[in-house]
Design a protein that fits this description.
Helices cover about 75% and strands about 0% of the residues. It has helices at about 15-35, 40-60, 60-75, 80-95, 100-125, 145-165, 170-190, 195-220.
C-alpha cells in the first residue's frame, strides 16, 4: 500500500511576488554596495561628474538652493519622517486597536535606522568636499539616510493605506506625495552637495528592500 506524499501548500501569489521583489532588491543593493565599497572607478567618475555639475547649479541658483535646504532639513528630514511614523502608530492603536501593526511599523523604522547607520560605519565613504559648500552634513555618505528613511516611511504608510482600504482619492494623493517626497529628498541631497548620487540610489534600494521584507513579515501575521 502506497502512501501519498504530503507536500507543503504552495505560497499565495502575493507572497511569491514579495519574495521575487525582495530577491531583486537585495541583489541590486548588494551589487551597488560592493561597487561603492571597492571604489569602482567608472562609478566614482560618474558620481564626481554629477556632483560637480549639480554643485555649480546650486552655487549659481541661491533661491532654489535655499528652498531645497528647507525641504531637506525640515519637511523631508529623517526625524520628521520618524515623528510621522510614531504619530501613525499611535493612531493605529487608538482608532484601530492594531497594536501588533503599530509595533511592526515602529520596529521596522528603528531597524532601518540601525541598518543605515551600521552600513555608513562599515563602508565609511567620505562625503563630497567643496571649497564653497552650500550645506553640511554629518557621518559617512553611503547610504543616504534621508533617501532611505523617506523610502521606508513612505513605502510602509502607502502599504498601510492599501491594507486598510483607503479611498481612491486619498490613495492617489498619498502616492503622489510619496513619489515627490522620495524623489525630491534624493535630489536635494545631491544638489546641496552632501551626497554622491549613488548614495541616494543606495538609500532608495535599501529602503525599498526593508519595505518589501517588512510587508512580507506582516502578511504572515496580520492584525
Amino acid at each position: 500500500m502506497h502512501t501519498q506524499s504530503v507536500e507543503s501548500p504552495p505560497r499565495p501569489p502575493a507572497e511569491r511576488r514579495t519574495a521575487h521583489w525582495a530577491g531583486a532588491l537585495a541583489l541590486g543593493s548588494a551589487l551597488l554596495l560592493a561597487l561603492v565599497a571597492v571604489r569602482w572607478h567608472p562609478l566614482m567618475t560618474l558620481d564626481g561628474d554629477l556632483a560637480d555639475t549639480t554643485h555649480r547649479w546650486a552655487v549659481d541658483s541661491s533661491g532654489v538652493t535655499h528652498t531645497f535646504r528647507i525641504l531637506t532639513d525640515w519637511v523631508w528630514d529623517p526625524w520628521t519622517m520618524r515623528i510621522l511614523t510614531f504619530a501613525v502608530a499611535i493612531w493605529l492603536v487608538w482608532r484601530r486597536a492594531a497594536r501588533w501593526t503599530a509595533g511592526w511599523l515602529v520596529a521596522t523604522c528603528l531597524l532601518a535606522t540601525v541598518a543605515q547607520q551600521t552600513l555608513k560605519a562599515v563602508v565609511d565613504r567620505p562625503r563630497p568636499v567643496w571649497p564653497d559648500p552650500v550645506d553640511s552634513a554629518h557621518y559617512s555618505a553611503f547610504p543616504s539616510g534621508h533617501a532611505m528613511t523617506a523610502t521606508v516611511v513612505c513605502g510602509l504608510l502607502l502599504w498601510l493605506l492599501h491594507h486598510y482600504g483607503a479611498g481612491r482619492a486619498l490613495w492617489r494623493t498619498a502616492v503622489a506625495v510619496a513619489v515627490v517626497s522620495v524623489a525630491g529628498v534624493g535630489l536635494t541631497r545631491v544638489w546641496l552637495g552632501v551626497h554622491w548620487a549613488t548614495d541616494v540610489v543606495g538609500g532608495w534600494l535599501l529602503g525599498a528592500l526593508v519595505v518589501v521584507l517588512a510587508v512580507g513579515a506582516h502578511m504572515r501575521r496580520p492584525d
